């Protein structure tokens, strides 16, 4: 009698091979171009295929990075420039630590100490303050692309201005200087845009207290709002005859 043959599945043969990671050649070329021109001044970079590209450079190469983007790569359109303060808020969610402490107490929880860890997002970072700028090529047929450039700002809080390369950076740098206290060397005129000339401090820094929120916490933190329909039900109960006058008003 012939031996019966049984089919046995080969787990290794049936297993699907993992899909190859997507590659974005065009954006990889952008990163390599910055590395070619700036060398080890390119600290980090990240490409999200089909979406975007970020390049982080040393602070001493900040203006050089702008020159590479505009003159070598053709990114002649300046989008924006700003500063990020990566310090976690020392005042709690509502900018008033006492509110968070009270909410934790009512919930029977031990309030966690404020976090001091800096999280720098895409392409990393090492300092509390970082510069972000966005430029793009919007004039080359079929070649539209953009890149976000980043640089750590050291304790001197001074970095080269982009105005000699991108004139449109003028007001962006003035705002960053006013709100975060970063000085842009070579800027033609750092002066206030929004605040009085004698204003002290930089309101967009995390350590700058928003005094208005010390009096009234952020909406939604302690506000109790009625559920949908509760207001209508309350109005109907107070105005039973539909005259527009509540029972209390009628009695008076």
Question: What are the salient characteristics of this protein?
Answer:
7 strands, alpha/beta, 18% strand, Beta Polymerase, domain 2, 5-stranded mixed sheet, single chain, two-stranded parallel ribbon, globular, 252 residues
Number of structural domains: 1
3D shape: globular
The CATH topology is what?
A: Beta Polymerase, domain 2
Integer-rounded radius of gyration:
29 Å
Mean pLDDT, all residues: 81
Characterization of this structure:
The chain has eight helices and seven strands, in the order ααββαβαβββαβααα. The chain is α/β, with parallel strands linked by helices. The strands form two sheets. It has a five-stranded mixed beta sheet with strand order 1-2-5-4-3. It has a single domain, classed as NADH:ubiquinone oxidoreductase Nqo5 subunit (Beta Polymerase, domain 2), CATH 3.30.460. The model has no long low-confidence stretch (mean pLDDT 81). The longest helix is centred in the first third of the chain and has 14 residues. A hairpin with a 3-residue loop joins β1 and β2. The radius of gyration is 29 Å and the shape is globular.
């Amino acid at each position: 009698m012939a031996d019966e043959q049984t089919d046995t599945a080969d787990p290794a043969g049936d297993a699907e091979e993992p899909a190859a990671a997507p590659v974005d050649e065009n954006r990889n070329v952008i990163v390599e171009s910055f590395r070619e021109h700036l060398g080890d001044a390119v600290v980090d970079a990240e490409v999200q295929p089909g979406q975007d590209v970020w390049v982080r450079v040393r602070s001493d190469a900040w203006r050089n990075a702008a020159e590479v983007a505009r003159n070598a790569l053709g990114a002649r359109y300046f989008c924006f420039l700003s500063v990020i303060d990566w310090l976690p808020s020392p005042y709690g969610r509502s900018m008033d630590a006492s509110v968070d402490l009270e909410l934790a107490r009512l919930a029977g929880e031990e309030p966690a100490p404020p976090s001091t860890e800096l999280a720098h997002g895409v392409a990393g970072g090492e300092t509390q303050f970082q510069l972000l700028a966005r430029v793009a090529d919007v004039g080359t047929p079929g070649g539209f692309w953009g890149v976000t450039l980043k640089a750590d700002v050291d304790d001197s809080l001074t970095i080269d201005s982009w105005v000699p390369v991108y004139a449109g950076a003028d007001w962006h740098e003035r705002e960053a200087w006013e709100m975060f206290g970063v000085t842009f060397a070579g800027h033609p005129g750092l002066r206030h845009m929004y605040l009085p000339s004698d204003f002290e401090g930089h309101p967009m820094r995390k350590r700058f207290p928003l005094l208005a929120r010390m009096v009234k916490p952020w909406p939604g933190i302690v506000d109790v709002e009625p559920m949908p329909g509760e207001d209508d039900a309350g109005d109907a109960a107070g105005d039973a005859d539909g005259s527009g006058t509540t029972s209390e008003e009628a009695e008076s």
